[in-house]
Specification:
7 domains; about 900 residues; elongated; mainly beta; Tick-borne Encephalitis virus Glycoprotein, domain 1; single chain; 62 strands; 9-stranded antiparallel beta sheet
Amino acid sequence: MSLYGALFSGVSGLTAQSSAMGAISDNITNVSTIGYKGTTVNFQTLVTKQTSSTFYSAGGVQSKPRQSTDVQGLLQASTSSTDVALSGGGFFVVNQANTPGISDPYLYTRAGSFIQDDQGFLKNSAGYYLQGWPTDAAGTVVPSSAALTVTNQNIISTDYLESINLNRVGGTAAATSNVAVGANLPSSSGTGDTFKTDVQYFNSLGNANNISINYVKTATSNEWDLSVKPPPGTAVATLYDNQSPKGVYSSTGLIEFTAIPAANSTIKIGFTSATAQTYTFVNGTAGANQIQVDGNQTLSQVVAALVAEVKAKDKAFSVDSTRIAVKSGVTTALEFTESGVGDIYVDLSSTLNATGAPVSNQTGTFTVKQQDNLYSDFTMLRFGGGAFGAADGAVLPNDNDTFTVNGITYGFDMSGDGTVTSGTVISPGTAQVDTVTINGTVDIGDVFSVTVAGATYNFTATDTSSSTVATQLAALINANTTVGAVATGSAIAITSSVIGTAFASPSALSATSFAPAGVSTIGVTGTTAADGTNPATQDITIAGTIDAGDVFTLTPVDTGATLTGFTAGTMTYTAQAGDTATSVAAGLVASITGNAGYTVANVAGVITMTSTSILNTESFNATPTALTVAAATATANTAPSTTATTANVAISLSSLLAAIETTIEATDTVMATTGLRVQTFDINNDGGVDTLYISSVTNDTNDIDTSGITALARPVDADGTAYASTTIAVATAAGITFNADGLPSGFNVSELEILNYADGANNMSNATGEGNRVTLDFGTTLEANGLTQFGAAFTPAFITQNGSKFGTFAGVTIGQDGLVTALFDNGETRKIFKIPVATFVNPNQLESRSGNVWSATQNSGDYTLRVADSGAAGQVVQSALEASTVDIGAEFTNMIVVQRAYSASTKIISTADQMLEELMRVKR
C-alpha cells in the first residue's frame, strides 16, 4: 500500500507542479497585458488516514491557484487621453455590445486602454465598451432613459448606464453671460457728451454680435446715463438695474425692414396686443391708420410714413418723440425707445410681402418694456378708473379727495362750492346755482313757500326780518341731499351737491300775508290789599282771540304810593302764530324789566303780581297803566323771486385734468417753470384728454402721492396697469454716479437682456428654457478697477467677456472622480459622462474571463457602483494604464523551483517503479 501510495503521491506532485507551471507561463506571457492580475499557485496536502501506528500510507499534494485581483498594478503614463487607470479599488464596467441589450452581460475590468472605434464608442483592446452615467452640462448624472425621472446610481442597466460615445458630442458654442468694462469718463464733459465702448459678444449659436455701451453725461455733476441699442438682427435690448426684483433701467426696440410690405399687410403697434392699433399698407390713397404702398415709394419713404402715422394716430407716441423714430443713419429701419409711458407691443406676424414672406429681420411679436419711474424723467397718470370720457362712465375723484405733487397737497372740489377740507382747491367744474330772494314787507305770521328739487318747504315769519325768513328757509332746504342752501341777507343761494347734476329751479314761490282773526283783551280780574299777614296781590287775565302780531303791554301801579320799595317796571309781548292766553301770559312775565317791591308769576294763563310787603295800608291800584292790546294788522306782501345766477357745468376727464394742470402750475412755481412740467394727453385716442404728464428736472424729485384719491378713481399708468404704490417717484436716477475723487459711488445698471434673434439663437432673458442675461461689470464702488471719472480724455482700459463662437470636438479630459469633460477648439468645455467604479466585497473571487475581464460570482458578492475617488472606489487617472502585476524575476525563480519539484516527483515515480520491479522478481 505504501509503495503504490508513493507512486500516486509522485503523480500528484507532477500534477500540482504542472498546474504551477501553467500559472507561471500565463503570468510570463501576460507580463505586458494591461490590467492583468498575476496568478499564484499554492499547494495543499492530500493525507491518507493512517490505520496503523507502525505503517505509513502516502497521500500526495494538490495545487490551489489564486488570482490576486485586488493587487494594485503600477501606473504607467500614456499619451492617449482616453487611456484610464484606477488608483485604488474597484473596476470599470464594460460590455461586449456597444448598445447593450437584455442578453448582453455587464463585466468588469481594470484594463483601461480605451480608444474610439469607428462609431465613436470607447472600446478597449479586448473589444469591451466602457460604460458611464450620462450627465447634463453641469455634471449632474441623469438617467439614460428619458422615461425615468429619478436617478438610481447603484443599478447597472441600460436605464442608467450607456456606452460612452464621443462622436455624439458634436460641437458647442457658449453664449456670453458676463462682460466687464473699464474706461475713464472725462470729468470735464458737458451735458449730452457721449462716449461708447464697443463690445463683441456671442449668442447661444456661437454667432458674434456687437453692442455699443453708450455713456451720456447728464446735467447733474458726476452723473452719467447708459444706453444700449439692439444689435442688428435682434428686436429688443433692455438694461436692468440692481434692485430686487430687477427694474427696467432702459429698453429699446428695432425693426430692420428689408422690403416694402405688400398691400393689405398689416403691423400692430401699441401698449398691448389687445389695445394696439393696426396699421394697414394700402395700394392707393392712404386714410387713417394706413400707409401707401402703390409702387411709387421707396422703402425709406414707407418707413418714414409709418412713423408719422403712428405718431398722428396714437397719442402715446407724441409724449416723447423718440418713442418711435427712423433709426439714425439707417432710413430703412425704425427704433423704439421706451422712456416711461408704457410697454410698446409690436406684432410683425402679418407684415409680409406678396409671397407671404417677412419683410424685416425681426418677425413675430416683441415688447419693448416700460422704463421704471425711478429712471424716467416723467410719469403718466391715467385718470378715470379705467374708463375714458365722462360719457364712458369714467370714475372721478370724490369731493375733498386729495392729491399731492412735489410736496404740495391739492383737494378736489367736486361739489362746486369752492371749498375743500384740505389742500389747494382744484375746481374741475361749476355746479348749478339758483338764488331765491325774499321781497317786500314781512309781517309776523306771513307764510313763505318754495319748492326745490321736488320738495316744498314752508316757513311762517316770526318777526318782520326778511333775513330771518331767508335763514330759516335755507335751513329747511338743506335737508335735501341733492342741493345745498346758504342765506345771505334776504337771498338764498341754492347749489347742486354734485357738479354736473342739475336740479329743478325753485318753484311755487309764494308769500301768504297774515290776516287778523279777531280781537284779544287783557284786564284786571282781582285786587287784594295787604292785611298785615298777607301781601297785596293783583290778577290780570288774557282773553279773546289772539292773533299773531297782537302786542300786549302791562305796567302795574300801586295805590297812593303805599307799596314799600315799589318800582313799576314794564311787561311787553308780541303774540306769535299759535299763541294762547297761557303762552301770552308767560311771554309777558318773561319780559318784565325794571320792577321792584313785587313779584310776578304766570299761573295757568293768569298773571299774578304779589307784593313783597304785608303792611295793612299797601295795595295795587285796580287800574294799571298801559294795560293795552295793539291788535295785529295785515300788510300785503310780495312773493319771493328766483334767479339762475350760475349755469350748471358738468365735469369730464378733460375738465378735471385741465383743472389739475392749471392749478398745479398756478400754485407750484417749480412746476410752472423749466419747460412743460405738467401736460395732458389723450392716451386712449378717443378724442378726450385722459392722462396727466408730470415731469422732473435735474436735482429735484417730484414725488406724487395718490393715496388721498378714492381707490376706484385712483390714477393708473398710461398703459392701464396699476402702480405698485400710491407714492410714485418721478426722478432721473443716473446709471453711474461718481464721487468727487473720481471713483464710482453707485451703479444702477447690472444686466442686459437681448431678445428675438433672427438667427434663431436663444433669448438672453433668464426665462425658463432660454439663455441668461448678460451681467455687466463696471467695477467696484470706491475702487478704480472699472469705470472712473478723472480729468483725462475718454480712455478705454479693458473689455473682457466670456462666451465663444462655435467650436468642434477636440478631445476629453477625465477627472479623478470619473467626470468626462468634452473639450472644444473654441476653448469651451462641456461635461458629458461620469465613469462609475464597481467594487466588491471579495474581488479575488471574481470569475476571470477572456479579454482580461471578470464576472461576479456568489463568492465575490454583489457589486456596488460608486463615484470614483469616494469610499472604497479608487481614483480615475487619465492618460495612464495599470501594468500587469506580474514580477517576471519572481516568475523565473518560481519556474526553477517548479522544475526541480517536478523532477523530484518523477524520481519518486521511477524509484517506486524500481521497487515494484524488484518485488516482481521475488515472485519468479
